[in-house]
Write a structure and sequence with these properties.
By secondary structure, the protein is of the alpha+beta class. Helix content is 43%, strand content 12%. It has 2 domains: 4-189, 2-Layer Sandwich (Double Stranded RNA Binding Domain), CATH 3.30.160.390; 205-335, no CATH class. It is built from 15 helices and 7 strands. The radius of gyration is 27 Å and the shape is elongated.
Length: 336
Amino acid sequence: MLTNAAVRSARPKAAGYKLPDGGGLHLFVAPNGRRSFRMRFPWQGKEQLLTFGMWPEVSLDEARGRRDAARAQLARGEDPRAAQVCAISQTHDFEHVARQWHALTRPRWTEVHAVDVLASLERDIFPAIGAAAIREITPPMVVQALRAIERRGRLETARRVRQRISLVFEYAIAEGLADSDPAERIGSAMLPPAPARRQPAIVEIGEARALLAAVDALDAARPVKLASRFLALTAVRLAALRGARWEEIGDLDGDNPTWRVPAARMKLAAAKKLDAANDHLVPLSAQAVQLLRAASLNMHRHDANMHPAGVNMPTGLIFPGDGPDTPIGEGAIGAL
């Protein structure tokens, strides 16, 4: 159990650390010396973090009272974070404002990007400045939080996180919760990005042919080998290739064979994924058509004559993995 003396005497270390109290409550001591009361709790199978405020603005007794109230909400099946976000007009700390910005902006993003944005803030920024009042955050505080990312060698990540902090402050300024953006003009204090380097690549046609021949000679799963060759013939993104379906292939036996990759599987903003006008059309060469015919021979006979266009083609994934509805693994072609 924590004591007031232990809270007062807690000193910063090179990395942030926790002093436990009870019932999930703990004191978090950031590398910059700022101390905040937080609570870990399970919600829908995942561990979540709730910040009650900075010490000494929030005392140990007040933090325990908020912990007990949060535990009562959990017992009623309520998420205590929701009530805390609703009380943002009283608290105005960075984490609450950032979560409100994230909830407002999330519909514009893909699910993967939305999760990545929030995870980067939860991992690197909330522990450092999340409990600080948003009007009290200074450029040195932001720089110090980003330094921890730079020390891990993640210079590009630090740059992206700084941009996300700025967007939070842009939102806060618009809502009247802040007057300025302390992350706006700190670029000169950050480490420069690593110099660009050339990626390994085969650039001679003879070497490229030798690679394709070597892949063909491997004793490997046929769908993976066919997918590897199809990737070379179409130059699409790996995610598009893994999800390729027979229903997306058009005019295979005609003059203009085409693969229509749905916008929903393309790397696009969330709103554009919903518009079929953004489907990606891939003209198929004679070699690509020949490969698809070879792939169709792998399909079970009962799958034939089921294509919505009424042609003698199977349905489902073109390059199935362990099962007919499971795509090949993300690393399968790289491993090949």
